[in-house]
Amino acid sequence: MAKRARLIYNPTSGREEMRKRLPEVLQRLERGGYETSTHATIGEGDAMLAASQAVDRGFDLIIAAGGDGTLYEVVNGMGEKPNRPPVGILPLGTTNDFARALNIPRDWEDAVDLIVRGYTRPIDVGKVNQKYFINIAGGGSMTELTYEVPSKLKTMIGQLAYYVKGLEMLPRLRPIHMHLKSDEMEMNEEVMLFLITNSNSVGGFEKLAVDASLNDGLFDVIVLKKCNLPEFIKIATMALKGEHTNDPNVVYFQTRKLEISSPDYVQINLDGELGGTLPAVFTNLQSHIEIIVDESGLSTYKHQRRLGS
């Protein structure tokens, strides 16, 4: 009997590739044994609602087609519902950090074939207040640049848009007083930003969280203390090589739960989307969602299994 898949896609994501490829994608899924219905998102929050309904309607698979923003909404729509189906990813957005961390191919045909093969891996999900994130949460003056990049610019020049905007904002960087508390540590001082990561791939930095594992039940936390502009540029350069954790202005640790508060107004960035403000409690939900991955990693991940087996 054919399995039922729900394909949730953002028609404006990336260079509108999904809209162009839809008939071929559906045909390929059909040949692979999936009866697939589609939902084209029409605005913010729509993918979240569609994913929630797909879980309630008992689909065997949910496919998120778009960038990190689409995947973020799908994860939030599934939340902590019982009987969450596995998630397949078609990384057709401007930024696909999480797909990159999982080595999911950018080529749509290869990505669909990977979904059809159906090898899954349980992935940790972060919960903050009543929202969820699958790759990264952050806060501080630096993280606000994500919201300031116009979507047209983002579509046209992709990842470069973030760096251009980031360079523009460097002179405006200011330290913010924060209180961070976990079982492992407590700090109460001025910081430039904090990053709570699930994977090692964040904003094009492949070695930002060197010890990150996607299903160890732990966040990797990076805190950048108060520093000046030359120090910041030096740390950013070190981060490209994964050497930033040796810098005295960088605090790096792992934890299952972290509380953060500030007397200032501090926005939270969840997977590149606005996720509310501090204070917040970040909790790791271990192995919370099954994601379809490349089976070549089968020997590496003991929890990986074949869908339906």
UniProtKB/TrEMBL annotation:
> Kind of enzyme, top EC level?
transferase
Q: Which PROSITE patterns match?
A: DAGK
Keyword field contains Metal-binding: yes
Any one Gene Ontology MF annotation carried by this entry is:
metal ion binding
Residue ranges of the DAGKc domain?
1-132
The Gene Ontology biological process terms listed for this entry are: phospholipid biosynthetic process
Pfam families, per database record: DAGK_cat, YegS_C
Which cofactors, by name?
A: Mg(2+)
Q: Which GO terms describe its cellular component?
A: plasma membrane
Q: By what name is this protein known?
A: Diacylglycerol kinase
What species was this sequence derived from? Paenibacillus chitinolyticus
